[in-house]
Amino acid sequence: MATINLLPWREELRKQNQNIFYVMLGGGVIVAIAIMAALHFSFINLIENQQNRNRFIQNEIMVVDKKIKQIKALTKTKNQLIARMDVIQRLQSRRSEVVHMFDQLARTVPEGVYLKKFSQRGPNLSISGNAQSNSRISAYMNRLEASPWLKGTDLKTIRSQSLGVNDFSLKAMQTVTKINSTQEGE
Questions:
Q1: Which residues, other chains included, contact 46 with Cβ-Cβ below 8 Å and sequence gap of 6+?
Q2: In terms of CB atoms within 10 Å, which end of the chain has fewer, N or C?
Q3: What is the pLDDT of residues 26-35, one digit of tens each?
Q4: In 3D, which of 116, 122, 120 has the Cα closest to residue 168?
């Protein structure tokens, strides 16, 4: 029987398998590194895209904040202008009231009554003066009540100062009367 030595063939097969294993292992490592590099770069790309979006949003937020500040400033200015317009409209609607009130005060003063002091707080009027008699003060109060611009007369004090002179003070309320165009011309 002949002896066959199979050891070198097996050893060559083992070396060949070992070489294939190392090549496969190297190829697997290279593929794994390539996959990891691809994932790394894709993640970096995603992060950069998100950072760009965040910067864009921050810039837009700053623009919107500036617009909000402008809107608040405009709203404040608008409210101030509206308040001024309201004051002007109130003054405009009441500008003839003072004239009519003074006209009525002058027209209602009877002979023998002299006004010394007049003050107004809102619709409340305080009137002080001198009169020759109590009946003249009463006539003055009746005339004030008959006036369309003054109502609610209330006598506060009467003092006799000297012979034939009485010092008085009274209160009245100013009323708002609608004015016809014919009344304004008079």
A1: none
A2: N
A3: 999 999 999 9
A4: 116
User: How far is Cα 139 from Cα 144, in angstroms, rounded to an integer?
Assistant: 9
Query: From CA 152, how far away is CA 135, in angstroms rounded?
Result: 18
Residues 107 and 146: beta-carbon distance below 8 Å: no
pTM: 0.47
**At residue 183, does pLDDT exceed 70?**
no
For residue 125, the model assigns a pLDDT of 86
d(CA 14, CA 20): 10
Q: Which residue is listed with tokens 């609610």?
A: 152
The chain-wide mean pLDDT, for the chain, equals 85
The residue type at 18: Q
Question: Distance from first CA to last CA of the chain, Å, rounded?
Answer: 158
Closest by alpha carbon to 107, among 138, 150, 157, 168?
150
